[in-house]
Amino acid sequence: MSDNEYTPTSKAGKWFNDRLPLLTLANHLTDYPTPKNLNYWWTFGGILTFCLITQIVTGLTLAMHYIAHADMAFESVEHIMRDVNYGWLIRYIHANGASMFFLAVYIHIFRSLFYGSYKAPREIIWIIGIIIYLLMMAAAFMGYVLPWGQMSFWGATVITNLFSAIPLVGEGIVTWLWGGYSVDNPTLTRFFTLHYLIPFLILGLVVLHIWALHVPGNNNPVGIDVKKPSKDTVPFHPYIVIKDTFALLMFMIVFAFFVFYTPNILGHADNYIEADPLVTPAHIVPEWYLLPFYAILRSVPDKLLGVIAMLSAILILAALPWLDTSKIRSAVFRPLYKQFYWILVADVLILGYVGAMPAEGLYLLVARVATAYYFLHFLVILPVLGLKEKTLPIPLSITEPILGGTANLATARNKESSIK
Amino acid sequence: MSEKKTKRRDFLFTATYAVGAVGVGATVWPMIDQMNPDASVKALASTEVDVSSLTPGKTITVLWRGKPVFIRRRTEDEIADARSVKLDDLKDPEKDEDRAKNPEWLVMLGVCTHLGCVPLNDKGDYNGWFCPCHGSHYDTSGRIRKGPAPTNMEVPKYEFVNANTIKIG
User: Fold this and answer.
1) N or C: which end of chain A has fewer CB within 10 A?
2) How many CA atoms are closer than 13 Å to the CA of A203, on its beta-carbon side?
């Protein structure tokens, strides 16, 4: 990194920085050259950091009032809602915050899919991101168990039972996960512990995610390499900071709408009934952000294969940098990929919809077709498309498509070279 | 490094790794095993149930080891149904005679073998049980007939202590 030569102006700053170069790091983050054509789809990294911090802060405060015991958990959540000062607000922020976190992460992931951000040299950023996503799902699932309502209990039962599909050792693993012969108090206490731990693991991975990002720098909507720093880049502060802040404010309006106006719309009413090991709710549905994978699980009529299909659907993303054989990053210059991209978006939305519906009749058929297409996209379409597709010519620089499109191209070119 | 001959130092390295691995294993195992069912959970291993109030065609659900157990007093029709099925038609072939020693009484874990939900009584295509979670159908012997569940509902160890009392576990 070129900003290694940074020296603080004040004497005290220099003294400190010689011993711990935190100011060098701060300077790197401030000056970090960023492509100047980043659009609002690039603001979700900052939004996600906000979501993580929000979950950690509200989670810490909730943990001061919550009691992780099968006999008391449900009541302690009601106690938070009714008695604790602003308990309702903190809990609603935390519960809806999980949904907002996933909303943002899905936009972030699909941004990467559209602009090819997972391609060389950014594979490690992408894979760390997938690990974060997996940890998010684990944290969200265990967090949903903590209120010890009907959906908590039966969701926990169904998800932990997925492991029983493993031949030979499956049953043993499930008993080990439960700490008993069913989901019960030992399960609740360990889920609470892990739910508390995982956000901090995610925080560590976020640092690695950003570190890995700062090596090659950001991808951009045009998807070409930019020299940095150059006329194609702007410093992170104030340009990106202000743009991220504006986007974050817009996001917080949506967040606040859910928290204050429809705090329970994304949850399930059955979770306000205390857990009962003798009665399964008529219709078990996971939270909305897990529905596409749930649909894949149910679309396979065999237990083990269903579990394998569901896990593969997530893990296949980690192999994406090698499955997509195209050298062109941005879908802007890949006319065919662009269409398949939107079909994939539709496919995932359809999977999410049928995942919420009963697994029978037409829904099941649609789920099966959509599942098949999901894998077809990654395993067949992407590898073949990269080799066959006729891509559009990519510009030489970020500036070219903007200035190149004007009537007075020559003037633009001249101006450009005079800036150099 | 180019020398291929095993040296005294290689032996020491290997021995150190081996002892180290055993040490790490011995330290990690208690951390893993603490998650297995503890003594108090295992102590709740058996439950006695009074079944005198059950008339034919009725089912009661009791809790054993935190899991529901169905105790059904079957009707003549149900027994005949369950016993007339050809083993070839079953996904997990098991004779009804082996599942219900006393044909009138069916005792089994009320846990769907797919993903652990509690199936509903008197529902489904085979007049036995139906699991609402992912649509598994069980017959009047609790055997899987249709849907994603891989095996029949499990019959736990149980015995009649006297004519009216069943001891599960």
Assistant:
1) C
2) 13
Q: Tell me, what's the pLDDT at A177? A: 95
Show the tokens assigned to A81.
Answer: 């809602």
Best mutation target, B117, B134, B154, to test chain A (most A CBs within 10 A): B134
**pLDDT reading at A2 higher than 50:** no
- Checking A257-263 for CB contacts under 8 A at 24+ apart, the result is A258/A96, A258/A99, A258/A100, A259/A89, A259/A92, A259/A93, A259/A96, A263/A92, A263/A95, A263/A96
Distance from CA of A60 to the nearest CA of B (A): 25
How far is it, in rounded angstroms, from Cα B39 to Cα B70? 26
Contact list in B for residue A177 (CB cut-off 8 A) is 35
All residues of chain A having their beta carbon less than 8 Å from the beta carbon of residue B117 are 154, 157-158, 280, 284
Range name among A128-142, A285-299, B131-145 with the lowest pLDDT average: B131-145
Q: Which residue numbers of B are catalytic?
A: 134
A111 near A42, Cβ under 8 Å?
yes
pTM of the model: 0.88
Six token digits for residue A138? 């684990």
Which residues, including other chains, have CB under 8 Å from residue A323's CB and lie 6 or more apart?
Answer: A316, A378, A379, A382, A383
pLDDT digit string, tens, across residues A151-200: 999 999 989 988 988 999 999 999 999 999 899 999 999 999 999 999 99
In the predicted model, is pLDDT for residue A409 greater than 50?
no
**Structural tokens at position A392:** 């559009």
Residue A404 has pLDDT above 80, yes or no: no
Is A410 an 8 Å CB contact of chain B? no
Residues in chain B closer than 8 A to A284 (CB atoms): 117, 132-133
Cβ neighbours of residue B151 closer than 8 Å, sequence gap 6 or more: B91, B92, B113, B144
Check whether A291 has a pLDDT greater than 90.
yes
- Better-scored residue on pLDDT, A47 or A277: A47
C-alpha to C-alpha distance for A383 and A340, rounded to whole angstroms: 12
What average pLDDT does the segment B10-23 reach?
A: 96
Residue A296: name the closest of A308, A282, A279 by CA: A308
Radius of gyration of chain A (CA): 24
Chain B positions touching chain A (beta carbons under 8 Å):
32, 35-38, 41, 61, 63, 65-68, 114-119, 131-135, 147-150
Predicted confidence (pLDDT) at residue A301 exceeds the cutoff of 90? no
Candidates B82, B56, B62, B64; CA nearest to B169 is B64
- pLDDT digits over A14-30, tens only? 999 999 999 999 999 99
- What is the tens place of the pLDDT at every residue in B78-104? 999 888 888 888 889 998 888 988 889
- Taking the CA of residue A280 and the nearest CA in chain B, the distance in Å comes to 5
Contacts A303 to B, Cβ<8 Å = 114-115, 148-150
A327 touches chain B (CB under 8 A): no
Confidence band of A287 (pLDDT split at 50, 70, 90):
very high
- Sequence-distant (≥ 6) Cβ neighbours of residue A198 within 8 angstroms: A135, A138, A139, A142
Cα(B109)–Cα(B156) distance, rounded to whole angstroms? 7
Supply A356's token pair. 């919420």
